[in-house]
Amino acid sequence: MNTGAKISLTAILGAACLTVAIAVLLTGGANAGKAKKEDCSMDAISQSICVYRLILDDIDAKVTMRGGGGVTSIIQKSDDLFEARLAQEGHEDIRSYQMDLTDGDKPKIKAVTESTKSY
Predict the structure, then answer these.
(1) What domain count does the chain have?
(2) Confidence (pLDDT) at 84
(3) pLDDT at 43
(4) Residue 56 is part of a domain; what is its CATH number?
(5) How far apart (Å, rounded) are the C-alpha atoms in residues 101 and 116?
């Protein structure tokens, strides 16, 4: 294969990859056709996703100290207690979330407790 043919083949492959990438972005990729709002009562995974979104939205709205290493983890401590950890310089901010899961479709935050773990 001569140099001109190699360049043409490379250009065609590049254009094809770009077309696929644009199509994936425009259709929403793997989430194409999936409802935007999760049905939180479907199963444990769906409920966890809804709870994590609530926690992340709460952190985004209420946490003003934006330095450090960001959200390092969100874990479920019991059926209705979740813990979010935010790394800061020399310490970790811990936000404990008591959730109301009685309405399976719409989990709600009942209470938030803040604490700090120093290193």
Answers:
(1) 2
(2) 97
(3) 86
(4) 3.10.450
(5) 26
CA-based nearest residue to 83, from 55, 62, 48, 116: 55
- What pLDDT was estimated at residue 82? 97
Q: Are residues 51 and 107 in the same domain?
A: yes
Count CB atoms within 10 A of the CB of residue 71.
17
Mean pLDDT of residues grouped by 10 in the chain (119 residues)? 53 45 54 57 87 96 86 94 94 96 87 94
Which residue is listed with tokens 């019991």? Answer: 78
The DSSP secondary-structure symbol of 40 reads T
Beta bridge partners of 116: 93
Rama region for 9: left / alpha / beta (φ>0; ψ in -120 to 50; rest): alpha
pLDDT for 39 equals 77
Beta pairing class for 91-100 and 81-88: antiparallel
Contact between residue 55 and residue 111 where contact means Cβ atoms under 8 Å apart? no
Cα angle 41, 43, 49 (rounded to 5 degrees) comes to 80
